[in-house]
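Q: Got a minute? One more chain.
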Amino acid sequence: MMDALTFVVAGAFAMATPLMLAALGELVTERSGVLNLSVEGMMAIAAAIAFMTTHDTGSFLLGFAAGGVSGLLLSVVFALLVLVFLANQVVAGLAVGILGLGLSALLARSYEGMTILPMGKITIPILSDLPLVGPILFRQDVMVYLAIGSAITLAWFLFKTKRGLVLRVVGENPQAAHSIGLRPIRVRFIAVLFGGLMAGLGGAYVSIVLTPLWSQGMIAGRGWIAVALVVFACWRPIRLTVGAYLFGVVLLLDLAIQALGLSIPSVILTCMPYALTIVVLTIVSSDASRIRLNAPVSLGENFRPAN
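A: Always. Here it is, folded:
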């Protein structure tokens, strides 16, 4: 029983990491007033490029770099559509997301079923040998700690720095920000690129660390869960971290319940993360006042400077 608990909680950190990375990027994007629904596609193309790079070079560092850059490049397409050509953000996001999914399947078609060696974990002497806590907190891969550090850094950036304030002002009222000399389009462009980079890192983590093999469709809705996490967290990084670990535990329930010998149909367990996503969004959306208080006022609205 204790071994199963340790497995689930320790594994939840890894399962939550791609969700955290992608959701933190989406949080910054939405804080600037841009709704990006192409996260799934950005994660998918990044997963494909990262796997191909790592498989051919043997370097995880190059794999993550390639994945991050591929997500960033796809975000450039989205940014041009919504910030330069003023396309509808929902439609553009869905279109770019489909593009990313299609490209991932096309580019990595010849790699289907191939595997790579898993990335090693960081073992902290003495601490990693502690009962229960050791395997959970002190025996993880470097990206797990990077995701946690990113959440803390982003919370500090948004609420303790001048640039973070500028980002939030642009998300609340881009016209007012423009009138006092700020550049909303540039701020939003940078925010979208950051979101694409983080989605790319999240996608890369899925294919070269979490499940070190290539299979079409392996992102499996994680991009949509990341978007839901931002709403669940009320656009706050620390709450987002808690939500990501909650989803991480749910994603591992299938294996944990099998380890305990319980007879629950696997189909039901596989559906649980997505059912939880629907439940969370339903609960959060039912409190309209809470959303109005926390959501960026201009979220989803294109900005055109007034003459």
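A: The chain has 13 helices and two strands.
Q: Perfect, thanks.
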